Amino acid sequence: MLWDKYKEHICDDCKVPLQHRGIMEPSIEQIESWALHSLRDALAKFSKTLEDFGLPTPSVAFDRLETNGLLEVEHDYNVEVLQAEVVMAIESLNDG
């Protein structure tokens, strides 16, 4: 089955979006459902469904977790990079 062959690769990037939505330690079922949810949304843009490709439907509903895409982008940052930028900015301040 297509899903069984590629689900590990498809699910690789699904943990972080769930964490941004308040699920700090998502289960495998949640991660796989998020991947299927994302695929379903992408396929819908082409008038296709998961069923068209023999893919399972998500077992977890995420409708309540939808967020504004702009907010998601704003929360997608690297804390270590920001901390380094703060240190550099503080070091560049004048003493007087």
Overall form: elongated
Return the average pLDDT rounded to an integer.
83
Order of helices and strands: HHHHH
Distance between the termini: 68 Å
What share of the residues does DSSP label as strand, in percent? under 5%
Query: How much helix is in the residues?
Result: 55-70%
Word description of this protein:
The protein has five helices and no strands. It has 96 residues and is an all-alpha fold. The protein has one domain (2-91). The longest helix has 17 residues, at 28-44. The chain starts with a helix and ends in a 5-residue tail after the last helix. The mean pLDDT is 83.
Q: Could you provide a short overview of the structure?
A:
Helix content is 55%, strand content 0%.
Which features characterize this protein?
96 residues; mainly alpha; 5 helices
